Amino acid sequence: MATVKFAIPKGSIEDATFKILEEAWQTVRGRGRTYRVKLSDPEIEVKILRPQEIPTYVQEGFYDIGITGKDWIIEATADVKILLDLEYGQVNQVVAIPENFEYNNLTELIEGFAKQKRTLRISSEYLTTTSAHIRSNKVYQKYYGDIRPMIITPWLRVGENKMVEIFLSFGATEAKPPEDVDAICDITETGTTLVQNNLKLIETLGHSSAHLIANKKSLEDKVKAEKIADIIALIKGVVEARKKLHIFVNVKEENLQKLLDSLPALKRPTISKLSEEGWFGVNTVIDKNEYIKIVPKLREMAQGLVVIQPKQILPLEELKQVMNK
Q1: To 5 degrees, how large is the angle CA 293–CA 294–CA 300?
Q2: Does residue 20 have a pLDDT over 80?
Q3: pTM of the model
Q4: Of 143, 158, 159, 251, which sits most exposed with the smallest number of CB within 10 A?
């Protein structure tokens, strides 16, 4: 029996991760008492780690699969297989500055400080991402060419450009300006925290959400690959179910075809005769955003509507595509 080692994140997306695991496996034991938790499947070994560590640990093969934010996958430049967007932990990675600064975007900020020959200081947990984004800016290239901004941590200094410095933040990044730094590169869900700290957003680097990732060599192991395929199926089943509704409705035979023509379905609706002559039962799965649109039609043509939130919808036929991309 080959055990699949599974790293899950501690911190801001921890609760949402446990929720999806509980919906997929029903039983999750040990949360809150240890960094090691147990699923109902004994062939999966789960450990809780910081999301920043997970991309590198999965890349190096310490873990076969993991859940972490896309932002940390990019920050670590991790050579891993992205299996699935889990569609929670939705945040934007942004650059923000004090609201009383006159600059409206990153280009103006870089140029303003360069013209005044002032050192631009930025605080971030995302050192690699921030440096790469700044270097790609055309105004940065105009004033500084291709030299790298200086990255400063308590134990390391790399980069040649002392006129643009990126300081490692250990948290509470939004509290750093204006006394300690001039700008921050951080993640935000709604922007409320930025406003509360008198900051304004001037650039969006990208969007991030929780992703399921895998070690590439683990996917070449036939036994582990089979188990990982099972894990994908169960988790993707939860992700898909959250976007769907399962509806049951009774309809007279004279209205059956008209109703079927108006019903969106996952595949084809299931139709069965009821005990009362001339009546049929229809059940199907629809997108949540379609439900409000079809309620008037259902009210007009049908009776006895029952709506259920499905727990899982397993797209088994798609698994090979996910594994082989």
Answers
A1: 130
A2: yes
A3: 0.88
A4: 158
Cα–Cα distances in angstroms (integers) from residue 98 to residues 139, 176, 198, 199, 228, in the given order? 21, 10, 6, 4, 46
**Cα–Cα distance for residue pair 325/99, rounded to 1 Å:** 44
Most confident by average pLDDT, 24-28, 206-210, 296-300: 206-210
DSSP state of 182: S
Task: Give the DSSP per-residue string, 213-231.
Answer: EE-HHHHHSHHHHHHHHHH
The count of other CB atoms within 10 Å of the CB of residue 100 is 8
Alpha helices in 161-304 (DSSP H): 192-196, 216-220, 222-241, 253-262, 288-301
DSSP state of 90: -
Q: Taking a C-beta distance cutoff of 8 angstroms, is the pair 303, 250 a contact?
A: yes
Kindly report the backbone phi and psi dihedral angles of residue 174, in degrees, each rounded to the nearest multiple of 5, phi listed first.
-65, -15
Best CA proximity match to 213, nearest among 53, 27, 42: 53
- pLDDT reported for residue 268: 76
Three-class DSSP category at 64: coil
Contact predicate 47/4, CB 8 Å: no
Residue 319 has pLDDT above 60, yes or no: no
Place of tokens 């690699």: 128
| Pairing verdict, β 183-188 and 120-124 | parallel
SS3 assignment, position 73: helix
Q: What are the pLDDT digits (tens) for 154-164? A: 999 999 999 99
The fold of the 92-208 domain, in CATH, is D-Maltodextrin-Binding Protein; domain 2 (3.40.190)
Q: The domain 4-88+210-241 is classified under which CATH number: 3.40.1390.10, 3.30.310.80, 3.40.190.10, 3.30.70.3190?
A: 3.40.190.10
H or E element that contains 188:
strand 183-188
> Exposed, middle or buried by CB within 10 Å (0-12, 13-18, 19+), for 220?
exposed
